């Protein structure tokens, strides 16, 4: 009995110590915020949401394209020829801006419209938004984060919102037992349910990655934490998540980090894949099993690459991504990519997407004529080549002998095709861009890359015909220098993009001076 009482006392002592530590850290934070001229971030978020509730009317305005950003949502309108963009963030090295604006892009007249509707959610990035044609079209948003301008504070959301597209009306869903506050999670719709997986929470003192799984019934408006069987994916954020036609859900890749020692973290990029499979003979539709699958190792490990599915869920497409190289405990450099891959959702296998280039009729006719002429001399040319390149010794010191073997014979046509493929334009390397598919056309917007210590955030806009797979078309070229005022800055004093961002976030500026 005495030992048990001692253990209890020890437990209470630890709780008191933890409480004192939290209070001490809270007081330090308040002093630091006072010096920075910032309010407590929770107060800021509440203030913004209260201001949104005061909005009485819907306002719409045709505007310039959205400003530079990443970690936003980008989806196709379920009925109209439009694309929809919401939220995101921009950092210029000294100030972080979090957006809460809602844009509609008209594919017919190439114009952007910003819509401000009453009672909307506070600004956020790293959230998830999905679209459904149910009830004349809805946007569902869960979670994400808000940061103070100096990034000295972060606030993670656990709220669920729906935007009724036809009514132009926001609605905050009050449903208990949902996921904890987080960002970097993933969410998909399947069988009239929202599935939320993973993500992370970081308050600058500690962080945690998740691998829990929740579903929200879009008919009963109830959350349920799913208790699954099988081996689940390890906790992670930023993974690829897509719904399959048969009710299964696929998870691929992602990122997490862990503490190695004090003030030193080690990141991990995942390349594994799992399928969430409904249990047979389950009338409730709430029993699932995790099954690990192999998609093939077609490309190098990476994270932060967006994925979007075709409307019939037969294929999904990924672009870009990054792999961080830890040079030492403090320095990390990233390899950014701009390659483009297709995921066959029926065979569950990656495919390389090869663009053929756009040719007019005259080019095709000349190509056929050239091919015919080449074919006549192919046999004799191959004989000559084989005689001259059987093997060549390039180093022989009596100990080691290096020999180059026969060079594969390649026709002039295939050489020309290879050359054309390498010369075809591709959007620059980046992470966390927005991708959406409408009428067989894939659209790519924004994202971020790095040049040394400098972050380059984009607002360029591209399209690719997924049937022709001929070439990327530039809708809007990013021809301005991105403002960066942090370390490695070469553009201090540039005001052009700063003014653009301030105009773009005017809805949040009106609601809070802290943004």
TrEMBL record:
Acidic residues: bias regions: 373-387, 491-515
Biased segments, Basic residues type: 1-11
Coiled-coil stretches noted in the UniProt entry, renumbered to this chain: none
UniProt region (Disordered), positions on chain: 1-25, 361-392, 480-515
Domain of life according to the entry: Eukaryota
Bias (Basic and acidic residues) ranges: 12-25
InterPro entries: Kelch-typ_b-propeller, Kelch_domain_protein
UniProt cross-references to PANTHER family, sorted A to Z: KELCH DOMAIN-CONTAINING PROTEIN (PTHR46063), KELCH DOMAIN-CONTAINING PROTEIN 4 (PTHR46063:SF1)
Protein name listed in UniProt: Kelch domain-containing protein 4
UniProt organism field: Brassicogethes aeneus
Lineage: Eukaryota, Metazoa, Ecdysozoa, Arthropoda, Hexapoda
């Amino acid at each position: 009995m005495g030992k048990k009482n001692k253990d209890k006392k020890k437990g209470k002592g630890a709780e008191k110590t933890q409480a004192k530590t939290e209070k001490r850290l809270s007081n330090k934070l308040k002093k630091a915020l006072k010096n920075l001229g910032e309010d407590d971030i929770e107060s800021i978020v509440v203030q913004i949401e209260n201001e949104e509730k005061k909005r009485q009317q819907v306002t719409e305005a045709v505007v310039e394209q959205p400003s530079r950003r990443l970690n936003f949502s980008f989806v196709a309108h379920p009925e109209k020829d439009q694309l929809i963009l919401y939220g995101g963030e921009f950092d210029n090295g000294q100030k972080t801006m979090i957006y809460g604006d809602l844009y509609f892009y008209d594919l017919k007249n190439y114009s952007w419209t910003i819509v401000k509707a009453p009672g909307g959610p506070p600004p956020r990035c790293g959230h998830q938004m999905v679209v459904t044609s149910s009830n004349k079209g809805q946007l569902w948003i869960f979670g994400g984060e808000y940061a103070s301008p100096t990034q000295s504070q972060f606030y993670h959301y656990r709220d669920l919102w729906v935007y009724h597209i036809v009514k132009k009306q926001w609605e905050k869903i009050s449903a208990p037992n949902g996921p904890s506050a987080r960002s970097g999670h993933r969410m998909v719709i399947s069988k009239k349910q929202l599935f939320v997986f993973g993500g992370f929470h970081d308050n600058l003192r500690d962080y945690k990655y998740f691998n829990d799984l929740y579903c929200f019934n879009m008919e009963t408006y109830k959350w349920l934490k799913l208790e699954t069987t099988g081996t689940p994916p390890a906790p992670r954020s930023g993974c690829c998540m897509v719904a399959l036609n048969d009710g299964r859900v696929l998870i691929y890749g992602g990122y997490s980090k862990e503490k190695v020692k004090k003030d030193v973290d080690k990141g991990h990029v995942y390349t594994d894949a799992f399928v969430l499979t409904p249990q047979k003979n389950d009338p409730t539709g709430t029993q699932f099993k995790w099954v690990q699958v192999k998609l093939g190792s077609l490309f190098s490990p990476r994270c932060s690459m967006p994925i979007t599915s075709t409307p019939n869920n037969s294929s999904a497409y990924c672009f870009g991504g990054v792999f961080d190289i830890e040079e030492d405990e403090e320095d990390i450099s990233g390899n950014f990519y701009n390659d483009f891959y297709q995921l066959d959702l029926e065979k569950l296998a990656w495919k390389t997407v090869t663009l053929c280039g756009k040719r007019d009729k005259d080019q095709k006719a000349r190509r056929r004529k050239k091919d015919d002429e080449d074919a006549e001399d192919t046999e004799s040319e191959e004989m000559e080549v084989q005689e001259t390149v059987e093997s060549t010794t390039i180093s022989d010191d009596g100990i080691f002998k290096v020999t180059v073997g026969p060079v594969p014979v390649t026709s002039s046509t295939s050489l020309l095709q290879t050359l054309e493929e390498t010369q075809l334009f591709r959007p620059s390397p980046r992470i966390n861009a927005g991708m959406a598919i409408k009428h067989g056309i894939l659209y790519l917007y924004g994202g971020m890359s790095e040049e040394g210590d400098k972050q380059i955030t984009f607002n360029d806009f591209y399209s690719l015909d997924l049937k022709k797979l001929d070439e990327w078309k530039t809708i809007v070229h990013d021809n301005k220098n991105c403002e960066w005022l942090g370390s490695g800055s070469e553009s201090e004093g540039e005001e052009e993009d700063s003014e653009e961002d301030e105009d773009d976030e005017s809805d949040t500026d009106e609601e809070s001076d802290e943004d």
